[in-house]
Amino acid sequence: MSLYLALDTATALGSVAVGDAGRVVAEVTVGDRRHAAATLPAMQEVLRLAGARFEDLAGLVVADGPGSFTGLRIGFATAKGLWQAHQGLSVETAPSLLAAAWRARAFAAGPVAAVYDALRGEVFVAVYRFDAARVEALLAPRLLAAADLARVRPAPALAVGDGAAAYPDIVAAWTGRAPVGPPEGAPRAAALLELRGIAGGLVPLDEPAAAEPTYGRLAEAQARWEQAHGRPLPDPPGHGG
User: Fold this and answer.
1) Residue 227's pLDDT band (boundaries 50, 70, 90)?
2) Residue 101 · residue 128 · CB < 8 Å
3) Which of 1, 191, 20 is nearest to 94 (CA)?
4) What CATH number is given for 98-175 in this structure?
5) What are the distances in angstroms from CA 131 to CA 109, 128, 188, 189, 219?
6) CATH topology of domain 3-96+188-229
7) Selection from 162, 159, 193 nearest residue 177 by Cα
8) How confident is the model at residue 208 (pLDDT cuts 50, 70, 90)?
9) Fold equal for 3-96+188-229 and 98-175
10) d(CA 142, CA 152)
């Protein structure tokens, strides 16, 4: 069996898993936004539990955003570091919102929405439809005012995530059901492994060293700078973007 290591650091609850499509060998969760300190030890522990080494891996799967700016940077930086140290590895990605919705698919007779709290009365949201071998994005990940969730059509059968739990009345009116928040409604790295081989699931990163996560909106410091100066923040010297 080819082993893959998956990372999801897009929200306050992070996780690392080792396995292959449909078979998770080991998983470790990281809570309380401790991603910077705990992600590498979690990776080492999950490999120990799997009886494997970094050299045994065939590839990596890293959760994309939108989500926590800091968390996403940690996840992508970790994946890039592993790829640079072991350049035979493949690297794939999928929105963390998809991973959260995938976990809940068995509990909804219809589309599933994943909703992350973006603060300031806003949420990151996506809506997915699943069948046995395929996933379809009915609403691609985006930033919305929480009050606008009720306008999203078709309405999902279930909404999960910390953003759904933050606005329970709005979500209940939208879906007809109470939201499912963390930990049950949180994303898990194991879901990224399960999405391997599912049509519409993972996307390969052809140039991992240059890849950047989808943050969903500007970082707070950058937004303040651009508002104060009335123009986009310039790229740092030597940046190719």
Assistant:
1) low
2) yes
3) 191
4) 3.30.420.40
5) 11, 10, 20, 20, 36
6) Nucleotidyltransferase; domain 5 (3.30.420)
7) 159
8) very high
9) yes
10) 12
